[in-house]
Design brief:
This is Helicase XPB/Ssl2 N-terminal domain-containing protein. InterPro entries: XPB/Ssl2_N. Residues 328-454 form the Helicase XPB/Ssl2 N-terminal domain. Strands 14-15-13-12-16 form a five-stranded mixed β-sheet. It has a four-stranded antiparallel β-sheet with strand order 8-9-11-10. Helix 1 crosses helix 27 and helix 5 (59-71) crosses helix 6 (79-87). A hairpin with a 3-residue loop joins strand 17 and strand 18. It is 48% helix and 12% strand. It folds into five domains: 3-123, no CATH class; 141-316, no CATH class; 328-410, no CATH class; 420-484, no CATH class; 559-591, no CATH class. By secondary structure, the protein is an alpha+beta fold. The chain starts with a helix and ends in a 7-residue tail after the last strand.
Length: 595
């Protein structure tokens, strides 16, 4: 029997869930042209479809395919392995017997040759990878965990105010990573790791029509959580995304991810380089988050991976440092944060200062620009910031009080706040209205050569008002660059992406959920194949399908059985059986076996 007919026979006896799973996995290229099991079998036996399906199979399943082809008898092959191969459309049936498909065998042998693997080597027992000479110490996992959470939170706050740019293909632009690195004082490689973890946890998403990397509606809730909850959220999302081949070999590698990756090509001989790269990428993210230490899973990560209900979340994060009692403000205006802060306190300090180093102990710095930015942009998530509230925050959190340089900066800044207010304007005078409280400053702005491009014009009726034809944000930027204490009249709204915003984007641009539903085209193909295999009452077998498809059954049943000695003859198309009485039955040659 040809490969197409054998596979079609196997497809014909599949129930609807099995058939749906097969189509969902294999994704036939021309689903619109598939009308019955033969059409689907033809699609699944395309060389590229076979190669793609063989790639993630381990050596046990590959050896079974070769063994079935060579022996022609499935008796020596594990039934569970045969069932798996049947469900993914790599073996067929002849009658009730599983058979190899020539197209699959050919593609398999070519793939093994290209990979430098001999068929005989698949049949040898594979030894477990050797463990390390010394057990790894994973007790320091919490340091990486705290650092990763702190860096991810800082990056998320920046993206809330200024979404990152995407490339034309929808990937995060290198320039966006570089800008985030400069703003957060986090190394570019760590920025990339943090972005990957945040995206995996669906805290950020790519809006491709606007080519922007935005925060999702989950981001505010995550930022409002404590460090332990934040880490658990990122850790679970990352472990759930572990590549399947890596997950399967990890137990034999004694929870050593680096050893497991080295072992992957031996267990999965046809695994593409891209899948190996995905495993390496996972390992790097796991190391960044503190799930592994020098490649070995920590006990906490192992408990999460095993979904061990006997270990509570509180037990898993017990090693994380507790909330720091406060901060240390130095005379040079640097701020030392010795550990995790309460989420609201963290947000307030982050809004008033700029990061210089983010880790288990974080260093930030208060500057005139950071204070101005906090007041202009509204500061922390719970409301606006004023010079008075900024002072109150430092008085409440600083374990060293407010040093004189910071006191002077806050006092001087309080005197200037509100002296230059920039607002939008809809009149003929311009697009932007600037209110200056001090007459001498107003006059200085008008003659300042660095502000000539803003084209300020004084109001003829209001002494303290200037107008500009530039947009409000451009005027604020120009005044700030020229060292004037300019403030926008209304605070900017954090740019979290809401469900309403995402509904306005094209449907294909929102992140596709795991195990997305089948397309209408594939769903229709499944229905056609399923009904074609059962187009006659009670025909839930491959024999019933062929009776319906070719009318073999009715012709055979209507003819009397030849009696006496049978004489067999075979042509290219038919096998004939002739009895002593001269009666003859003709069967299609593909559906008959020689005695």
């Amino acid at each position: 029997m040809s490969g197409t007919l054998a596979l079609a026979s196997a497809i014909a006896v599949m129930d609807r869930p099995t058939l749906t799973a097969l189509v969902q996995l294999r994704r036939p290229q021309a689903a619109a042209n598939v009308t019955d099991p033969i059409g689907l079998a033809s699609e699944l036996l395309r060389s590229e479809s076979i190669t793609r399906t063989l790639a993630p199979l381990d050596r046990t399943h590959l050896a079974a395919l070769l063994g079935l082809d060579e022996a022609g008898n499935p008796a020596h092959i594990d039934a569970e392995v045969l069932d798996t191969l049947s469900r993914i459309g790599l073996i067929g049936i002849d009658g009730d017997t599983p058979v190899a498909l020539p197209e699959v065998t050919s593609a398999l042998r070519q793939g093994l040759t290209a990979a430098g693997v001999t068929p005989d080597s698949l049949r040898t027992q594979l030894q477990d990878p050797l463990p390390r000479e010394h057990d790894a110490d994973t007790s320091t996992w919490f340091a990486s965990a705290v650092t990763a959470v702190s860096q991810s939170a800082e990056i998320l706050r920046v993206l809330r105010e200024r979404p990152g740019r995407l490339n034309r293909n929808g990937a995060i632009a290198v320039a966006a990573v570089r800008i985030l690195s400069e703003v957060t004082s986090v190394e570019p490689a760590q920025v990339s790791r943090a972005l990957g973890a945040l995206e995996q946890a669906r805290l950020i998403w790519s809006a491709r029509s606007s080519q922007l990397l935005r925060c999702t509606e989950k981001a505010p809730e995550w930022l409002a959580s404590n460090y332990g909850e934040r880490w658990l959220f990122l850790a679970r999302a990352t472990l759930d995304a572990m590549p399947s081949p890596l997950r399967s070999v990890l137990p034999a590698s004694r929870a050593d991810v680096s050893v497991a990756i080295e072992h992957l090509p031996r267990v999965y001989p046809l695994l593409p380089a891209s899948d190996i790269a995905a495993a390496v990428d996972f390992a790097q993210t796991a190391e960044y988050l503190g799930l592994t230490v020098t490649g070995v899973l920590s006990p906490q990560a192992s408990a999460l991976l095993a979904q061990d209900n006997s270990v509570s979340s509180e037990q898993i994060i017990a090693d994380l440092p507790g909330v720091a009692p406060g901060i240390y403000v130095q005379p040079d205006l640097s701020v030392v944060i010795p550990g995790p802060l309460d989420p609201q306190d963290e947000a307030e300090i982050a809004s008033l200062s700029r990061p210089e180093h983010i880790g288990v102990a974080t260093t930030r710095r208060v500057t005139e620009a950071s204070l101005a930015d906090a007041i202009e942009h509204g500061g922390s998530e719970k409301g606006g910031v004023t010079a008075e509230s900024a002072r109150a925050t430092f008085e409440r959190l600083s374990l060293t009080g407010i040093p004189q340089p910071l006191d002077y900066l806050l006092t001087a800044f309080a005197g200037r706040v509100g002296s230059v207010v920039v607002s939008e304007h809809l009149g003929d005078e311009g697009r932007t209205r600037v209110t200056v409280s001090r007459p001498e400053m107003r006059q200085t702005i008008l003659v300042d050569r660095s502000l000539q491009h803003a084209q300020f014009t004084p109001s003829p009726t209001e002494p303290g008002v200037l107008y500009s034809r530039l947009r409000r944000e451009h005027v604020v930027a120009a005044l700030s660059d020229a060292r004037y204490p300019a403030m926008a009249e209304t605070a900017r709204t954090p740019t979290f992406s809401t469900a309403a915003q995402r509904a306005g984007e094209a449907a294909e641009e929102t992140p596709a959920p795991p195990n997305a539903d089948l397309s209408p085209e594939l769903t229709a193909a499944i229905e056609r194949v399923y009904l074609a295999a059962r187009s006659e009452p009670g025909r839930a077998t491959s024999r019933g399908f062929w009776n319906s498809r070719f009318g073999i059954g009715p012709r055979c049943e209507s003819l009397p059985r030849p009696e006496g000695k049978l004489t067999l003859s075979r042509s290219s198309r038919f096998l004939s059986a002739t009895g002593d009485s001269g009666r003859r039955i003709r069967l299609p040659a593909w559906n008959a076996r020689s005695p």
